[in-house]
Description:
The structure holds two protein chains of two kinds. Chain A is mostly helical.
Amino acid sequence: MFKTIFTKLIKCVNIFKGSLNKPLKETIALEEKDMVAWVREDRNRAITEIYRQYRDEFVQFSQKYGVVEEDRLDAFQEGVIAFYEYCYSGRYDQSRSSPKTMVFNMAKYALINMKKKQGKLVSVPDTHLTTREKEGVVDLLNENLTHQQHLIKRGLSHLGEQCQAIIRLFYFCEYSIEAIVRELGYQNENVVRSHKSRCLKKLREHLKMKNSGTK
Amino acid sequence: MGLSEKDHILIEKHLAGQLTETEQRQFLQRKEDAEFSSELQFQQDLKIASRSQERDELRRLMRETDAYSRPSTRSFASNKYRRILAWSAAAILLLISVFVFLLPVLPGSESGFYSVYYEPYPNTVSPLTKGGEGLPDGFQLYELGRYEEAIRALSDLPVTTTNQFYLGLSYLGDDQMIPAIAAMQGITDRQSEYFIPAQWYLALAHLKEGELDTATRLLEGINQTDHALSAKAAELLEDLQ
């Protein structure tokens, strides 16, 4: 029992010390970043920073909508993803609205739609999103994969790293074969095409195996 | 008969929205062919699956960020609330300080740090989903806290870094430190995303076993990296001093 008290006390002292003395963490000035370039070049860091810097503020800010914290956090995550996809598509105009405004608006719209799906109405003021921006959020929330698409998605994780990279660049990032040559340092377009073709063949074989296994 | 290279380029251009008018006509004609149509459908499904996979990866990244920044940010306590908490803690400390400081330094108290610092690592491999179907896999059993079942399920999987890591975590959850240490020690690939987290849990397991020197060495190693856990390692090292 003494041990527990002892360790809890140490923790209390640390929390106390931390609350009073801990300087604000060094933050990256997101507003100054070229978001479209950043999410394309350094996805993981971009998403982690956007999420880390705006998460708590959104969750606190959205308290007034009377939705539980877990749902507000879920909506925020969907907002970040919608923002990422919007940036990735090259349609995001940073001069029209800051990253924070855009993420918050998308997260708010996600929150409205998530609750609507549950048959609940959330009173949120106008999100100031364009139709296209709203469509991005709705498309994300309505993702409903078919059985075949599920199998393909699972199959993707069974492919080698190089195959996964080519497929991601071609199908998600919508890179041309020429751009993939440059990005992954291949010799020429024919090499990429034949590599991609082999990857798709492996994927089909995996699906065939899975489909025959379930019959 | 098989598709020609031209067919593949037509599909490629269609997916990229780059068909010229002439190609668009050829594309519509070729769509009548069953094999062409089936290939087109496959690649359209692949595009959707690839986007879904990207989304899952982003969700995993955000869950990981949550896992590393808990409890201070995950609880979303306001600064005001945190100040109240801090002062309350100070008041409690004041009240019992005489009692505490009269206590001798307890041998083996480092094991208590385990319970203070241990937090389950999130299941980022196959997270449970709302309304998910079928029996839970080993990773999901771990997430559910059904550690004994998770150990059985994960032990049956091939030995990979990911499987070993979650097996080790399940042993930790089940309070079996020796096999947990053995599993975590098996993660030696420094390039793996699980290497530093495995070192962290290994350090905690050694602390629980009262092996302060080994734990300290591991924590110092983590502290020298720029991994998100280095701050926690530094904090724990400070507490241990």
